[in-house]
Each structure stands twice: as C-alpha cells, then as structure tokens.
Amino acid sequence: MKKKWWHEKIGYQIYPKSFLDTNGDGVGDLTGVIEKLPYLEQLGVDILWLSPVYSSPMVDNGYDISDYENIDPRFGTLEDMDRLIAEAKKKNISIIMDLVVNHCSDQHAWFQKAIADPKGPYGDYFYLKEGKDGKEPNNWGSCFSGSAWKYDPQTDMYFLHLSLECTSLFPVHQSQNTAYQSLIRFRPGVLHFYPYLVLFLSEIVP
After folding, report:
1. In angstroms, how far is the first alpha carbon of the chain from the final one?
2. Category of 61 on φ-ψ map: left (φ > 0), alpha (ψ -120 to 50) or beta
3. Please, is 197 exposed, middle or buried when counting C-beta atoms within 10 Å of its C-beta (0-12, 13-18, 19+)?
4. What is the largest CA-CA distance in the chain?
5. Is the distance from CB of 152 to CB of 159 less than 8 angstroms?
6. Burial per residue of 5-39, b for 16 or more beta-carbon CB atoms within 10 angstroms, e otherwise
7. In the beta sheet, which residues pair with residue 47?
8. Rg (Cα) of the chain, in Å, rounded?
9. Cα–Cα distance between 49 and 135 in angstroms, integer?
10. What does pTM read for this prediction?
11. Which of 26, 36, 88, 194 has its Cα between 20 and 30 A from that of 113?
C-alpha cells in the first residue's frame, strides 16, 4: 500500500461546542480551542479535526449549515478562526474542517431562494418534487425517522431532507459545484476539508 501523508500522523477531533467555554455562556468556543493548543502539542497531535463551527440554527448540532462562509457567533468570529489557524501552524498542527456537502440548513440563502422561485437557478440546487396522489414523491425514509420528504406549502411541493431540518442538495449542479470550490478556499491555511456524508452524493430521485 502506498503511504499517504496522514499515515504516520496523530489526529485529534474536537467538537467545539462541548470542548472549552471561555466566556461563560455554556458553549465551547474557538478561543477555548486556541487556549488548549499547548496541551495538544504536548500530546503530540499533528492534525486537529474540527467539527462544524459555521453559522447554524443548531437543529443538527451544527451540521445544518446556514452560511458556509461565516463562523457561528456561539463559537466566535472569522478572526478567531484565522487566529486558530495561525497559532496551530506555529505548533506544526494542521487543521481539517468538516464540510457538509450533502445538505444544508433550510435557513440557508440557497434554499430560501429555491422555494421563492423553484423554477429559478437555485431550484436546481435541491430535490424539489411534486407529490403523487396527494402524498410524498416516493416512500423514502429519513436517516432518523419518518419520511425523507417534507411538504412546503409555499411551493406546494416536497423537498428531500434525509437529515432532520436539513435540505438535501442536488450534487451535480455546476453552479453549486463552483460555489463549493469557493467555500473550500474561503479559509486559507486549512489543510484539508472532510466531506461529511459524501456517500449520499449519488442520490437519484426516481
């Protein structure tokens, strides 16, 4: 087997919300991660894997992202993220961030534009389908419970949501792919992005 860059590295995953709270609001934050970098260095950590810290209504613990280009205020600011990247680099710790490419929050601007105009360009970003005989488009179940389809009275259509209040994204739309490429570049200094739930990117709705 050909050796990969991570094969001899030590990784440490942090879920920031429950890691270290530095401002007393009961929620862990990026400053808390920064404060613990010396400890991680002592442990011999080479790679810090950071669970989502993007803007989110937190229905799915941060995996329901409403803005891929901003940090949720609960965790801090973009400046805090840049400081974490810079301080980690000084200690030779690389950062991997979760990037949820399978779905986004139903509060994301893409989805809000899609339901405002299903025939417009953002309508193609999602699985928006008409019902069949007054029911869901098919019998798919969500990853948690119940139907994978949720009715939207504004459009009189159903949208696919395999994960809680997250709207499943259609993976082959070129404009969306271009948008994701931009997101991957939005924080220079991040070593890599972990494409969360990428296995669902082959969803084809009959």
Report:
1. 39
2. left
3. middle
4. 62
5. yes
6. eeeeeeebebebbebbeeeeeebbbbbbbbebbee
7. 11, 94
8. 19
9. 41
10. 0.78
11. 194
Q: How far is CA 91 from CA 41, 49, 69, 165, 194, in A?
A: 7, 15, 26, 38, 22
Q: Which of 108, 10, 16 is nearest to 66 (CA)?
A: 108
Q: Which residues of the chain have pLDDT under 70?
A: 163-206
Residue 104 is encoded by which pair of tokens?
């986004």
pLDDT digits (tens, 9 = 90+) for 21-50: 999 999 999 999 999 999 999 999 999 999
3-state helix vs strand vs coil in the chain, percent to 5:
25, 25, 50
Whether residue 205 contacts residue 172, with contact meaning beta carbons closer than 8 Å, is answered with no
